[in-house]
Structure formats: C-alpha cells, structure tokens
Amino acid sequence: MFRFLIVVPLALTACCLGQSQPNSSASCTLDDGSQVFVRYNKVSAKSERPSSGKPWAPGGAAMTLFTEKALTLNGTTIPVGAYTLFPIPGGKWTLVVNKNVAAGAPYDDKQDLARAQMEMTPLTETVPELDIALAHVGSKCGLRIYFGKVGADVDFVEKP
C-alpha cells in the first residue's frame, strides 16, 4: 500500500507538470503512401501573442514534424525522422526545422537543420485558434499556418 501511495503522486507529477502536450495534428500522404505529420498546440489568437523575430512554441511546446520519407526544405535535406518546428513571426515569417526533439528542451539555434522564408497571405477574417494544414500537391507537402489575421505557407518537397 505504501508503494502505491508513493508511485501515484510521482506519476501524476511526471505527467502533469511542465510544458503542455500537443493536442492537434495535420498530415499529408505522399504518392508512395509515406506520411508527413505535424503535431501542435491549438492555442487561442486572443490569449497567445508570439514575439516578432523570436522562435515560437505555441502553448509552450514546439510543433513536431514526423516524416516517413526524406524531404527538402529550401534546398536542405530533411532525413526520415522526427524534428521540431519553430515558426518565427514577423513581417515575413520564417520556418525553422530543428533536430532537438527532447521534451521541454529550450530552442537552440545550433540544432537548426533548415530554415525557409514563408509566403505570407493576409486573411480577411480572424482565425480564432492556431490552425495548421498539410496539403499534398505533386511532389510537395505544403505546410499552412493560420493564426489571427496571418496565413503563412511553405512547401516540403519529396526527395527523389
């Protein structure tokens, strides 16, 4: 009985403290059946204000990219695996693919694998919560980020 009383509080502490866990996802299926997934926190545009020029982890947790096929972003190869994604808001947004996937780890630019400037689209209506979509077109998986009055997109391209 005493073991149970000690283990349960430790388990609850481990699962419930620290950064929030991603609660939404988007996916793209490539022509060969390989999948690309992004997991992220669906945060409110009213309560969360990302800082211009600084890497953003919505809800305190970095977005996570999982790819079953090698991709390229802005000419840089992204091998099969898991990565963190950090959008950097500003006049023009930048997307960073980072190799550090340790839970709760702070952003470290030394772990950056690729960066790409995102195409910006002003939205006529406010998007109340962060929304991410992946769209498969030809050899590309287009990543779309919608937040507030901003739409930003960039293409991941299948590596042949």
Please tag this protein with its features.
about 160 residues; mainly beta; about 50% strand
Query: What gap, in angstroms, lies between the N and C termini?
Result: 58 Å
Mean pLDDT: 88
When the domains are counted, the total is 1
Shape: globular
Spans of at least 5 consecutive residues with low confidence: 1-19
The structural class is mainly beta
Strand order of the largest sheet: 1-2-3-6-7-8
Question: How many separate helices?
Answer: 1
* Main sheet overview: 6 strands, antiparallel
The whole-angstrom Rg is 17 Å
Helix content: under 10%
Count of beta strands: 10
Walk me through this protein's architecture:
This protein is globular. With about 160 residues, it is mainly beta. It starts with a helix and ends with a strand. The relative contact order is 0.19. It has one domain (about 20-160). A 6-stranded antiparallel β-sheet has the order 1-2-3-6-7-8, with no helix packed on it. Strands 5-4-10-9 form a 4-stranded antiparallel β-sheet, with no helix packed on it. Helix content is about 10%, strand content about 50%.
